[in-house]
Amino acid sequence: MSVWNPDNIKDVAESLGIASLNDDVLSGLSMDIECRIREVLEEALKFVRHSKRTNLTTQDISQALKVLNVEPLYGYESTRPLRFGEASIGPGQPLFYVEDEEVDFEKLINAPLPKVPREISFTAHWLAVEGVQPSILQNPAAADSRNQDLVPKGPSANPNLAAISGADNVTVKPLVKHVLSKELQLYFTNVCGAILDENNEEYRIAALSSIRTDPGLQQLVPYFVQFIAEKVTHSLKNLFILTQTMQLTSALLDNKSLYVDPYIASIVPPVLTCLVGRRLGSSPDPLSHLPLRNIAAALLGSICKKYGKSSHTLKPRLARTCLKHFLDPTKPLGANYGGIIGLQAVGGTEVVRALILPNVKEYESLLREPWLDESSPKHAEADAVLTALVAALQALEDDSLGLINGHANVPDEELRRRLEEKVGSLVADRVFLINRPKFVRAILEA
């Protein structure tokens, strides 16, 4: 038994010229129509549910017909709710129809025409011509440029530059609000205080161990990076603080749960400062800064090994910076020392062979005078630089294949002369004191 009235089907059939239909045909058509309508309504209700609505619209029916690959109905698309009127054509047979809005033709004719919409088009314009921005509508107006002038500039705009200029009490308003839980804020305060506590080594070790292993510190990474940069900038005369900041940087990089890649560009400058800085610490001992430089070099090598593949320009830029501080005669010997060990840490044997070895003899002219004068305050630093040079050259021995290549029967005097021609007398003497023929051959064959 179908819900659909068979009389409706008979009326449609008579309107198409079909005079008589069998009752079985009417019953079958009624059930088929009911099935089709139910299918359309089920699809339409899916659109209602996915649209988070409760009312079924004509658009939902149209979309359902499209999904079922049926030609949609035309003339019922409306963004306004339809108003239905009721007319009676007989007893118990109401007829519902859509009430059309009456339009006054006189008002319609006299109404102004709507604006013609613009066609979609593409245009090209110059952002700048030989560095000068043209004054066109597409480019920012002069008022926008004046607003940019109101942005703070100069040393006070950057806390690091402000520290260099002597303005320590500079407050910078953050551009983005970063919400931290009270637990993380308390953790950050306690860890930073423990790391800088000179009197309690146990607290320092515990704080660094926590940073190295705790998996829930991702939100604190930018704060730790900023803390490291500020402490290195403000504490260049305090070796303890500089060493602890390098230990903190090492702990952050060792934590496998932290994603530090976006902050490498901010981590490298403090590490380079501790590696090739001109004056680090205020101790009268001329060699007191060398352990800090060694830590920074090891840290730089670790950064290159972990993140060199993701940033192809990282190693070349670091090698260029270290080479500049190695060969610059205006830099102190401590900066030269940092440049040497930094080059070795960044590139290993290849960098030693390509950048250090060809420049050793030229650099020896800068090193000779302070090294020969044992009464000079720079003698100890010069000896440390010489030791660093020889240690860097030893990487060539480790990388060599152990081939003799005609050097086995060469007298020591001849080897010494050839070695002095290549690396200078100071380095040659130190190499011969080690008394390893393979080391000498590796330098000569490099």
Return residue spans where pLDDT drops below 50 for at least 5 consecutive residues: 403-407
Structural class: mainly alpha
**Tertiary shape:** elongated
% residues in beta strands: under 5%
Termini gap:
99 Å
What is Rg?
A: 41 Å
Helix and strand run = HHHEEHHHHHHHHHHHHHHHHH
The number of helical runs is 20
The average pLDDT score comes to: 83
What is the helical fraction, as a range of percent?
A: 55-70%
Description:
This protein has a two-stranded antiparallel sheet with strand order 1-2. It has helices at residues 6-15, 23-50, 58-67, 105-110, 142-149, 159-165, 182-195, 201-213, 221-234, 239-254, 264-276, 290-307, 314-327, 333-347, 349-356, 360-372, 379-399, 412-423, 425-434, 437-445; strands at 84-88, 94-98. It has 446 residues and is an all-alpha fold. The protein contains 20 helices and 2 strands.
